[in-house]
Hints:
single chain; alpha/beta; 7-stranded mixed sheet; 6-stranded mixed sheet; 23% helix; globular
Amino acid sequence: MRVVDLKIEDVAFGGKGVGREQGKAIFVPYTIEGEIVSAEILREKKQFAEAELVEVKQSSPDRVEPQCPYFGHCGGCAYQHISYEHQLAIKWRQVRDALQRIGKLKGVPMRPIIPSPEQYGYRNRITVHAQDGVIGFFRRDSHRLIDIEHCPISRDEVNRALTELRTQTHVRDGHYTLRTSANARVFSQTNAAVADALRDLVVDLVPPNQQLLIDAYFGAGFFAKTLRDKFERVIGIDWDRFAIAAAKENAKEKETYIAGDVEEELQKVGAVHPNRPPRANDAGNGRLRSIAPTTLIVDPPAAGLSETVRKTIVDLAPATLIYVSCNPPTLARDLRGLQDKFIIDLVTPLDMFPQTAEIEVAVHLCAKRELG
C-alpha cells in the first residue's frame, strides 16, 4: 500500500472527499473540500482509487469534533466531522450536480435546502443487529458488527430501547428495529420534524379544487390523507398490505387504497388517458372510467422509477407531478426520462438525515401543454 498527499476538491454523493493524482480520482472518507490530506491507497482501479485517511495536514474551517465515539468506525454517519451549515451546502450542491451530470438538466430552479431543526437526537427508529453477543451496527464497508451502547442521532426513547435490549440475558442473533412508536408494521419517516416540513411543502405545491389524486408508493397515506380534502377522488397504491389496511381504517367514500405492485396498478389506473375521451376498450377497467387524473405523487425507494413506471407517467400526463426522492442519482435519471412531457417547476432538497450522506428531494413538475 502507498500513501499519497492530496488536495480534496469536492465531496461526492455518498460522503467521500475527492482528490486527484495525475488526473485519477481518489476517494477519501471523512475529508472536506479544500483540505490537504495524506491518504493510504486501499484499492486501485483504472479510473479511480479508494483510500483511507491517514492525516489531515491542512484542515477546513468547517471541520468540527464528532459527537459520537463510534464515528469513523460505524457505517451510519459520514458527516459528523463537518459543521452543520456546511453539510447543508454540500448536500444542496450534490443534488444540483446530479441533475446536471446524470440528468443533463440545465438551469434547474432549485430552492434552498430545508434543514433539520435537530442535528442530533432526531431518529425515531433504528435497526440494530445481534450476532455472537455483539449488538450494534455494521462497521463501515463491512459486514462485521461494532458494539453500540448509545446512538447520538437517535431519540432518547430509541436509546432507552437499545439499553433494554442490551440488558437482556440472551439476545438471539438477528435484526431488531427499535422505535418511538408502537406501530411496528407501518412505515413512517425517521425524522418527524423534516417529514412535517416535506408534507407542508407538498400541500403547498398542489393547486386547489383538484379532481383526482393518485399517490403511488403510498405507505399509510402520509401525503394523501393530508391532501384528500383538496380532491374529489383519492387513490393510493402500495405493496405493503399492512399500510394499506391502516389507511382503510378511517377512509372516506372518495378514497380507494390498493395493495399491489405499483407498476401494475398504475398501468391499470392509467388506462383512461386524461387528455382524451375514454375509448371503447377502457370499459374493461372498472376502477377509473371517465375520471381524469390531475395530480400524481410518486415517492419510490432508492432504486427510483422503473422504465415501465416512467412510460406510464408519460402516458398518464397528470397536470401536476410531485416526485419525492431519497436518491439524487436515480431521481436525475428519471427526470431526464420525463423531461419531454414535463417542465420542472421547483426542486427542493431536505435534510431528513443530518450527519449522514442521505438526501431527500421534492420535485414539482407540470405537464407541458400540447399545441394543436
